[in-house]
Design a protein that fits this description.
SDR_oxidoreductase; 178 residues; 4 strands; SDR_fam; oxidoreductase; 11% strand; alpha/beta; Rossmann fold; four-stranded parallel β-sheet; NAD(P)-bd_dom_sf; single chain; SDR family NAD(P)-dependent oxidoreductase
């Protein structure tokens, strides 16, 4: 297994903390980028050679290049960036209710971190991995609606094909076969 180096913002608690712990246990290098370095001092004590703790406020965009340079200076590589600091809810004010604004992420952050670390070390890394029942249902719903749109407009889209031409028999303006 190849050792990877990750910067994890928001590594002091919740999902960021669980991901840092899981990555360190897997033998990876972790740069815990946090506002309060003392909040993760135990990680450095447990993993002194593979854990770098750096004070970092994700709102200070100009400091990001220094964070990357510090990572490269210490570990010589950077493979994964987990931008976990903070939390955002995106949506129109009339669509986002108080409950959604106040809710916390469902599920077990430690289990999610274990899954992510194992996938990153695997042969096939997913571009997007929804974690938790709600995320899977939300993304599945978007996919189903998209598929329904394709099916609803398929006949109209197909009707734009010339009935007299067969695929490959029409010349495109560039001279190639369409």
């Amino acid at each position: 297994m190849t050792t990877q180096t990750r910067i994890i913002t928001g590594a002091s608690r919740g999902f960021g903390r669980a991901l840092a712990e899981s990555a360190l246990e897997a033998g990876d290098n972790v740069v815990a980028a946090v506002r309060r370095p003392d909040s993760v001092a135990d990680l450095r004590a447990t993993h002194p050679d593979t854990c770098l703790i750096t004070k970092f406020d994700a709102r200070a965009v100009a400091a990001a290049s220094d964070l990357v340079q510090e990572t490269l200076d210490r570990f010589g590589q950077l493979d994964v960036l987990v931008n976990n600091a903070g939390r955002a809810v995106v949506g129109a004010v009339e669509e986002v209710g108080d409950a959604q604004l106040r809710c916390r992420q469902e599920g077990d952050p430690a289990r999610a971190a274990e899954i992510i670390v194992s996938l990153v070390h695997g042969e096939e890394v997913p571009l997007r991995l929804p974690l938790g029942r709600e995320a899977v249902e939300r993304i599945s719903g978007v996919y189903r609606r998209g598929l329904e749109d394709v099916e609803r407009w398929a006949e109209t889209a197909r009707s734009t094909t010339s009935r007299s031409s067969k695929p490959g028999s029409t010349r495109c303006p560039s001279g190639s076969t369409c």
